[in-house]
Write a structure and sequence with these properties.
about 130 residues; alpha+beta; Nuclear Transport Factor 2, Chain: A; 6-stranded mixed beta sheet; 6 strands; globular
């Protein structure tokens, strides 16, 4: 793999992290769920012991929560390319909501290349506070 190919994968995966935050804040649940593989796993930072298994379960969980205003801020994104079709990453996250204390945490992600492009195979969130 060339350095340019590695950087392209890193950029695509980092874009997926940012897109996830933006779509989440906009309440565009179908598009958020589509960022996962069909058998993807999501663990919310606020529920680290309750993983959601599969795109359909992830979508149902998002659609079942009451409307809210949020702003997810993601930073310190580091992507490690494992192969031309696999990568992993870590990012810091701050969740801001009106009338609530900010939450800080991180995501540990596993990415895979699919015919539709890069997708989350696994997204594990945790809270630092």
């Amino acid at each position: 793999m060339t350095a340019d190919e590695r950087r392209a994968i890193e950029a695509d995966c980092a874009r997926l992290i940012a897109l996830y935050a933006n779509l989440n804040d906009a309440g565009r649940w179908d598009e958020v769920a589509a960022l996962y593989t069909e058998d993807g796993t999501m663990t919310r930072p606020t529920a680290p012991d309750a993983p959601l298994l599969g795109r359909a379960a992830i979508l149902a969980a998002f659609k079942s929560r009451p409307p809210r205003k949020t702003r997810h801020v993601c930073s310190n994104v580091v992507i490690e390319v494992l192969s031309p079709a696999e990568a992993k990453g870590e990012s810091a996250m701050i969740l801001l909501q009106p009338d609530a204390a900010p939450l800080a945490g991180s995501f540990h992600d596993r990415f895979v290349l699919t015919p539709e492009g890069w997708r989350f195979a696994e997204r594990r969130g945790s809270l630092a506070w």
